Automatic annotation (TrEMBL):
Residues 286-390, 391-486 form the Fibronectin type-III domain. CDD domains: FN3. Belongs to the type I cytokine receptor family. Type 2 subfamily. GO terms for molecular function: cytokine receptor activity. This is Leukemia inhibitory factor receptor-like. The keyword Amino-acid biosynthesis does not apply. The keyword Membrane applies. Residues 1-19 form the signal peptide. Its main location: membrane. It is found in: Membrane. It comes from Sinocyclocheilus grahami. The gene is lifrb. The chain crosses the membrane at residues 677-700.
Amino acid sequence: MSVWLLCALLFSLIGLTKQDGHPVPIKEVKVYAEETDTFNNGAWVLNVAWRDEFAENDEFKKISYDIEVLRTEEMKTVHNETIHVMPNKTTFYHWKWTSPIPLQCTSHSVRLRHRDQHYIGEWTPLYTYNGQDLNATTTTVFPYDQVFMVGSNITFCCIMETDSNVPLVPFLSPISNRTYITEEPVHFDRPSESTSDIRCGVKGNSSVFHTGASVFIGYPPDDQNLTCITRDLSSVECHWKRGRNTHLYVKRETNYKLNGRDCKFGQCVLHAMKPQVTNWTLIAKNPLGVKTLTDTADPTHRVWMRAPIKISHAAYAREVTLRWSWNEKNYTWFPMICQKTFSGTGLSSLVLVNLQPFAKYTARVRCGSYEHFYEWGNWSKITELSTKEDVPEAVDVWIQYFEQNTYVLWKPLTQQQSHGIITGYEITIGNPKGRSRKIDIGLNTQLCYKITFGNETSDQIITVSAKNSAGLSPPSTIIVPSNPDNEVSISHINSSNGGFEMSWEEYPYSTCGYVVEWFPTYNKKQCDVEWEKISECDSDACDTWNRSGQLGAVRYTVSVYACTNDAPKLLKRSQCYAIEQQPGKVQNLTVKSNGRNLELSWDEVPLDLQKGFIQGYNVTTLLSDSETVINTIVTKVNLKLDPGSYTFRVSAFTSGGEGEGDYTTFRMDVEKNFDQMIAATIVGCSAAALVFIIITVLCYRKWKWLKKLLYPDIPEPKLAGKWITKGIYCTQMTEGYMKCEIQEVHSLEHPATSESLHGLDLISSNSKVIPGHFYLNISESPVDVSYYPVEKLTSILENPSYNLTMPEPVDVAQMSDLTLEMQDAYLPAPNFVQNNLVVKDSESYKPQSACQIVPKYKFSLCLKTLKLWFTRIHIMYEFIQLIVHFPANKIFDFDSKIN
């Protein structure tokens, strides 16, 4: 570095002269840092001042200078610029430069040279502003304890105590022997509530030492809406809003000046005020910037009055006079308005009218400018006041008929209606003849009085008045007839939203409206009645009266009276429930039986437990797992049931739901009804007969088809030779077997040989033996045998495979019980002669079907079919009877066994 300093000095000595040998005209160069409140914590602006003795012919022609800034130790140019100034031989030229790093981080040198159109001058010597890295005794970070705006990018430097120390991250870029800067500028994107710390770590022999710097991040002032007013007509108060929070506090907070005078936020007061248009300027300043606000107005047009003091009043029954005073002397001549109602010069009192007698009020006052109203002033303190008593309002009077007696009733007056403390009531009872008597009623008695007619037969005129310390209320009059007419039909009305609605037709003779009266239908008590008076029907008012509120789930009787010049006229009477709920339990459920017929009866739900209009009853019949529900509107029901043990439940229901049921159990045991069984048998047999007839008809109509399907015709066989006789021989065997043989005998022209007869086994080849059946079997080819007598033929045809003794020949009658099954195609028609079957001459022979051959067997087959059908019908009938009577019979048998 010493070499570089030597070169710089030589360069400075050479630059003292111009190229032409003229000296450099730039004189008295000064380099210094701009001083601020935080100058010692980090200086950023480098100032350069100089004088120029170079003479110019044209004093109005600008002079140009080249300026170059270098980091002295590295001799590295960090900034160069050409500036243009107007010539001035008497004063200093001035130029400033803002460094990207604090000037304390390292030394900075500046040099200048003159420039014009003809030549470029020599550089001046280097003028240096020394950094604190030359004589640092401790490790230090710059800048510190300074304020920066949100979004700033700050480059920090760390100056080492000695040349041998090397800092850690983030200080990685050296700019001198002892100074290192952050590799990249640190970005601050949000305000800091306190400080943001930057630490510089230095690695020593055995440990790491940390030093650092704190900075503050915030915003410049953002105050808005400056407004200046007057409150006492002698000074000005200015108010404004802060706007965005600067996040800077204590020494760095915003400072304010109003028209050059220091003030705090919300406490800027100018004691000198002129009744003319005035300008006010507010300057808000903090380390990051300055905000200027202005306002212009005549302060007398912006009067915000203070609150009145010392309020007093004078109270009467229906009005109060308020009085107050001010601490501000200037208010006595100032035109004002108070509460937008009362106005006047120097207003200090007002009268409150149309107040409620014997009532407590609170009052407070605020006023504003009358000529140039700007804003209402502050409220005064609250003042309590009370009005005096006045005569009460008229009471609401009505009558009640209860247990052949007549009562007059009236409603108590509310506090607003009483106009004071009610001390009692006065009742006057008179008649049209003019005679009357007065009765005083105290507060401790019921607001109800019994009217006695005595010997009077005319209507009574009743008046009722309430009294307090101010006097009697206007009288309320009602006429009570001696014989009230209550003959009117009673209807039912439905509940509506927890109440009931009433409608009626307008009465043409009504003079003062209508009265609707309601009371509990049951458990009615003396004087327990409510009423409401309605004015004349206006449009549809008579159709929309309703009552709701805290009404119980009991039945009410609602009546409508017309108010006339005479006694009230009853127009309509109805009963209703405000709220319909589930009814109570039915009473006295009983069962009467007559055979299979039952009669259930019960009593209605007690009137005080109905809780709604009974719409009907649910009768539930329970048997085993089955349940039957019958709905009825009467209290009696007839049932016809099968044998068994039944449980009955009866419950009432309203629109509010079904109530609790009353249970009873009844066991009914009934023997089988033989008439019913006979009827069921006849029905079953009739059904079976009908089915049989249908089948028979179908078989008859389709007989040819059935014949073709079951017994088709067999074509006539062609036989060689001349036949003389043919027959069938059958014998009874053991175990129910029948042995039958077909014997064919030729004429003498073709005698049968013994060999042919010897090889013929009719049982094995031409016949079958089956238990219980009779089979006829004819071989497909005729057997060539000779004629032998029947006796000999019997022995010849004996089956040697059966070691049986030949029984006697079976009679033809025995064959009728056998079932004939045709296995082959046809069989010649036989003539039955005792034990032998003699065949007619072959010339008169014709093939016939099996049914034509043995019609008796066909009849037997039909009989057996009918028998089978009747058996099936009988089984079906028994099965139906079993299903129908199974549960009852089983239950009956089970109960009998238990008992």
